[in-house]
Amino acid sequence: MRDKEDSAFAVNLWERSCTCREFQLLTIPCSHAIAATIKEGIRVETMVGVHHTIPYLKLAYKGMIMPVPDMDTLAPSLVMSEAESLRHLTFVGHREGRVRGDYSLGESLR
């Protein structure tokens, strides 16, 4: 499959993989896998990993979920301050004019 920039990606629907690696990392079909799936006449929803199905969603919420404490009285922890300091890092290879979230996983790894 080729994307808008005319880059080629190899999709293997049997192995549920794509050379952009997004399909393997998320276990959700990337845009290349979706195009290949449609071209082969396969239903796209059958290509989604089992962990994204309703039975697994129900399992995730089966246990007790404790409420979040009042945020006004919550004391900052070391973990929170470390996360705040990481927020200001810039990414190597960041392209001008694009937000980090605009990249597909395969594109951001190049």
Fill in the keyword field for this structure:
110 residues; mainly alpha; two-stranded antiparallel ribbon; 31% helix; 4% strand; elongated
Task: Walk me through the structure.
The chain has a domain at 1-53. The protein has helices spanning 22-26, 31-39, 54-60, 78-86, 105-108, and strands at residues 11-12, 17-18. The chain has a two-stranded antiparallel ribbon with strand order 1-2. The protein has 110 residues and is mainly α.
Which radius of gyration do the C-alpha atoms yield?
Answer: 19 Å
User: Poorly predicted ranges (pLDDT <50, ≥5 residues)?
Assistant: none
Strand order, largest beta sheet: 1-2
The portion of residues forming beta strands comes to under 5%
Helix count equals 5
- Class based on secondary structure composition and strand pairing: mainly alpha
Mean pLDDT: 77
Gist of the model:
With 110 residues, the protein is mainly alpha-helical. The chain has five helices and two strands; from the N terminus they run ββααααα.
Topology:
Layout: E1 11-12, E2 17-18, H1 22-26, H2 31-39, H3 54-60, H4 78-86, H5 105-108
Antiparallel strand pairs: 1-2
